[in-house]
């Protein structure tokens, strides 16, 4: 494991010292582990899934040492993980398994839940269809879990206490859907295929309408994981090596401000431990950067 900590202290004329800004880099198993998604619990626990191995890792509060949290090596060969989300004492994970002997590649996907403290497995729900891609999840104001299916341009909704999800929205504007997050009660998602950002309007009965595109005022490339931090959306760009914050404006517009660049295929971003954590997939690490003021 490789850890890098940086502390900066600037002295002024009177000899005072500004607060230190810290950054950390944690290697997840090895450089080929490809951490694709990560989640953080309020106590500082970090959950990190691997896109090349059948493991999800836990990094305990205050620790920088990854430990195996989910071991899916008993699943068929090639199983790996995408989305991770902590909801209270529950960890939600997207587990993907290639279908053997099929060209082009197809995958079966399962949404699984695990107890954050003990790792005990909860529900397992298989996304319907011959080829699915459970990619990301978000908890709505109704306490339901919303799940993106990239391969089929769909969003599913798992009601509180339910053991299987139902189709919530299917629309052509969901093509390439990847990350999703709720901000002020509204669901926002992005398309990793088209580099577009959308919001989903909902009527008084809770029925979703056609997604509405949010115009971003700067070019983005390979937008991926999206989360909420300090009351704004933060988003990873796996194609440009950047993460940015979005300020939503009137008229379905958003101002893009880069928070960090020079990354290698960043696929996820998550607030935790008072910082922003980024899945730096291309080099097998997660890195932190200070929360903006």
Q: SSE layout and pairings?
A:
Blueprint: E1 3-8, E2 21-27, E3 35-40, E4 46-50, E5 55-59, E6 67-71, E7 80-87, E8 90-98, E9 107-115, E10 121-126, E11 134-139, E12 145-149, E13 154-158, E14 166-170, E15 177-183, E16 186-191, E17 196-200, E18 212-216, E19 223-229, E20 232-237, E21 242-249, E22 253-260, E23 266-272, E24 275-280, E25 285-290
Parallel strand pairs: 18-22
Antiparallel strand pairs: 1-2, 2-25, 3-4, 4-5, 5-6, 7-8, 8-9, 9-10, 11-12, 12-13, 13-14, 15-16, 16-17, 17-18, 19-20, 20-21, 21-22, 23-24, 24-25
Describe, in plain words, how this protein is organized in 3D:
Helix content is 0%, strand content 54%. With 293 residues, the protein is an all-beta fold. The chain has a single domain (22-290), classed as Neuraminidase. The model is unreliable at 1-22 (pLDDT under 50). It is globular, with a radius of gyration of 19 Å. The strands form five sheets. The protein has an eight-stranded mixed beta sheet with strand order 15-16-17-18-22-21-20-19, with no helix packed on it. It has strands at residues 3-8, 21-27, 35-40, 46-50, 55-59, 67-71, 80-87, 90-98, 107-115, 121-126, 134-139, 145-149, 154-158, 166-170, 177-183, 186-191, 196-200, 212-216, 223-229, 232-237, 242-249, 253-260, 266-272, 275-280, 285-290.
